[in-house]
Design a protein that fits this description.
Strand content: 5-15%
Structural class: alpha/beta
Radius of gyration: 18 Å
Organism: Heracleum sosnowskyi
Protein name: DNA helicase
Number of helices: 8
Length: 197
């Protein structure tokens, strides 16, 4: 996590909270959470309005507009492209986001396929850990994916101004919320191991 100095705070439940503190609370599983619907455990966290995208119409278009809004004017600038990323839980959603971005580029595009067993250069979120991006979109047509993945996504950005989260809310009760999956037992075991070393 490499958050810039002097970044504006985010608003959680009407209170201003330092951005760094909010990101760390997500990672540690300490961000206040509630149960919604049939969930047996509280795992839904409120999203700051500064980063939560309100949209109408196509959610994929909305997240791409937020992150790649100047793409037609900046597509020749590798720095522009390198400073932006959209994360989403499932590969099926990645394809939709990629196609929407590609359709905005001039000219024709060609799709190449690779096999992970042959192409060892492909990266995972663990391999990308520690890399920062100035503009991160988190597209959540489904709730967050697994332990720590919400933290991995939000900790990539250097400022709340560069973070946009879009949740597809089919249930009004979940509007402005998303799941944060953190298995606190992992931290407890890790702490016990460190204390005994």
């Amino acid at each position: 996590m490499r958050i810039q100095r002097g970044v504006p705070p985010v608003t959680i439940h009407g209170k201003k909270v330092p951005f760094r503190q909010w990101v760390l609370a997500i990672g540690d599983g300490l961000q206040e959470s509630i149960s919604i619907g049939d969930d047996p455990e509280p795992s839904w966290i409120s999203l700051p309005p500064e980063v939560h995208i309100q949209y109408s119409g196509d959610p994929v278009k909305a997240i791409v507009d937020e992150i790649y809004g100047e793409l037609q004017h900046s597509n020749g600038d590798p720095g522009y492209l390198r400073s932006r990323a959209v994360f989403t839980p499932l590969n099926e959603h990645v394809k939709n986001v990629n196609m929407t971005v590609l359709q905005r580029l001039p000219g024709e595009f060609k799709e190449y396929k690779s096999c992970d067993t042959i192409c060892k250069g492909s990266s995972t979120s663990e391999a990308d850990e520690g890399q920062t991006v100035q503009n991160v979109g988190l597209y959540l047509p489904d709730t967050v994916f697994g332990h720590g993945q919400m933290y991995v996504a939000v900790s990539r950005v250097t400022s709340p101004a560069g973070l946009k989260i879009l949740t597809v809310d089919e249930d009004l009760a979940t509007t402005g919320f998303t799941k944060n999956i953190v298995y606190r037992e992992i931290f407890e075991i890790w702490y016990k191991l460190r204390v005994h070393d």
